[in-house]
Design a protein that fits this description.
alpha+beta; Apoptosis, Tumor Necrosis Factor Receptor Associated Protein 2, Chain A; BTB/POZ and MATH domain-containing protein 2 isoform B; BACK_BPM_SPOP; single chain; 13 strands; TRAF-like; BPM1-6
Amino acid sequence: MGKILRENAKPSANSSSAYPSAAPATTSSTSVTETVRGSHQFKITGYSLSKGIGIGKYMASDVFSVGGYNWAIYFYPDGKSVEDNATYVSLFIALASEGTDVRALFELTLLDQSGKERHKVHSHFERTLESGPYTLKYRGSMWGYKRFFKRTALETSDYLKDDCLSVNCSVGVVRSHTEGPKIYTIAIPPSSIGQKFGQLLESGKGSDVNFEVNGDIFAAHKLVLAARSPVFRAQLFGPMKDQNTQRIKVEDMEAPVFKLCHFFIFQALLHFIYWDSLPDMQELTGLNSKWASTLMAQHLLAAADRYGLERLRLMCEASLCEDVAINTVATTLALAEQHHCFQLKAVCLKFIATSENLRAVMQTDGFEYLKESCPSVLTELLEYVARFTEHSDIMCKHRNEALLDGSDINGRRVKQRL
């Protein structure tokens, strides 16, 4: 009989076991927990009139938003709890919008109004919390203090001034999200919309309105102007729109003291509307001086206010704040008053009030214009000068007293020489 021969199976060259096993894939992700923080100041005037409102009744601040939720401050003049019998005032922060298990950190501060900065502060921030951030379960949930301050102590403290209290509340909403690795590298170019619109202005293609400025003609596009300026929108498309929208005559935009070639002003205005940036003033006017730049910024601020271009107005205000000078500050102050630029006004008043500047500014033509156009500002200027002088006198007095007392100007004791 024949024999059956058996051989042990051997792996073939094509068998998967002939290759080493692939290394396991490794991925990663990160959980990020952060605090979105904001604050609100709540001023309570007529405190004495609020007493007797009733236990559990409150005065509420306006609603303010932090971290995607609305919040409100609640002040209880007669306290929140009946058992305290109106002995304490109560202060709380409440969730004023829909939300479930909102985790947050809080800080309630009763401001010291004496200037000593001895504020009464209750805070979650900058300290370790045993149980973590506070959790508000639903709309109306509160965090705060039933016995925030004893009423009798409050009414004789520096926290109450002119029958007024001031409370500052900080809220930090805790949010978490998970970040994974990016599997793409797509370079996103910066926006070019301003450049495209600017090129449209320069080419003049499709223009459908002309502006006449002291004999010069500027071609533009109604839709672009209307999209950028509420004044142009009303002028071109509103119920009281100009009868002839093919050519609109632009009257003088400023008082005689601010006279500059209106060609440059309107050209710069259109440049901003289309490009969303300021033009190079030196290149535009051909003038290379700080005075010329300041003058253009003054004109543009007035034009921006006239046409409702808030961003341009703020850009001009910021530029003028940086370039306050003797020969232009009076006209800048007049502009700040006329166009409600409060920060610019404060900068100008502070600059003029110094003794070395005041006399020089009073000799300028701009100061004469300021007196004629904004007489009320002169009263504010005099008050500011008086406060500035009084402060300087006090500082000088303290310095002299310190030196006589054997201290240096920083208050450190020094050994007198014999």
